[in-house]
Amino acid sequence: MNHLETVRRWYPNALTSIETVDRLLDTLGRTLGLSPRQIMHADSLCCDDVNAIQYPPRALEMLGPFHLGGLDGFPFAGVTGMNAFAHHVPEDGAVLVFFAPHIGVTKEGSLGEISRIGQSQASACCGAAKGALGKLLAGNIRPGAVTDLDYQMNTIEQIFLKEESRIKNAPHSLFEATEVMYEAINQRIDVLVSQTSYPCRYVILAGAVFINGDRDMGSFCSYKRLECIHLETGERRDLLDEYYR
Q1: How many CB atoms lie within 10 A of CB 141?
Q2: 44 - beta bridge partners?
Q3: pLDDT at position 120 over 80
């Protein structure tokens, strides 16, 4: 069975996470002349253990990663985290921020769950997104209800509540909720970058949906954004076509 073809039923431009990183590093080398050791890497991914297990090995050729993300990849580390990370970058190099919500796809093509190592039954992926979606569909999210005890989950619930009609009216509510989550993360990353000073040449923003497969499938990635900001000139360059060429 071709697992990539199964994933592409949902995400037509998906690649294996290994090829994703290969293409990314090749693109940055070809277009910007950067080697992996000149790149300080941060990720804003869900803290789900499956993401650590399925993390692409070649990503570790870069410096880092510094982890910005909490549940479902929202950058809960905030301005303080982004500024702390910014001070670790090589002066002649670049900051790379990779951000993505995640979602599971089984061998059979079911969305929102995976078969994990050592478990006989499939489990939710992303569990936080599915939990927040369940509360949304049941009408159990109150506007502004954010508590100290479950701050991250409550934040995701509020993000979904703002797009309630869009999610409820979509052909597949979890797929749409993941798109909503991507947009919220993308917007927040832009705000954090605008409030951070980086002592280097480039800031590179890579936005995607990270796709977890069953335990013997590996992981996949569907890129939505690859943008380079030249910090001296302010020029913004879209590298997504170059990445997919």
Answers
A1: 18
A2: 99
A3: no
Domain count, the chain: 1
Among 41, 44, 5, smallest CA distance to 25 is for 41
Least confident of 108-122, 147-161, 215-229: 108-122
Are the C-beta atoms of 95 and 89 separated by less than 8 Å? yes
Q: Is residue 186 part of a domain?
A: no
Rounded CA-CA distance 108/3 in Å is 9
Which phi-psi region, left, alpha or beta, contains residue 38 (left: φ > 0; alpha: ψ -120 to 50)? alpha
Q: What is the mean pLDDT of residues 71-90?
A: 93
Q: Which two tokens stand for residue 5?
A: 């073809």
Query: What confidence category does residue 90 fall into, taking pLDDT thresholds of 50, 70 and 90?
Result: confident
Residue 240 near residue 226 (C-beta atoms within 8 A): yes
Host domain of residue 52: 3-121+205-244
Q: Which of 182, 203, 18, 156 has the alpha carbon at shortest distance from 99?
A: 182
Q: Does 146 reside within a domain? A: no
Q: What is the pTM of this model?
A: 0.95
Q: Evaluate whether residue 17 is within a structural domain.
A: yes
3-state helix, strand, coil in the chain (%, to 5): 40, 20, 35
- Encoded amino acid at 227, one letter: E
Residue 51 predicted with pLDDT over 90: no
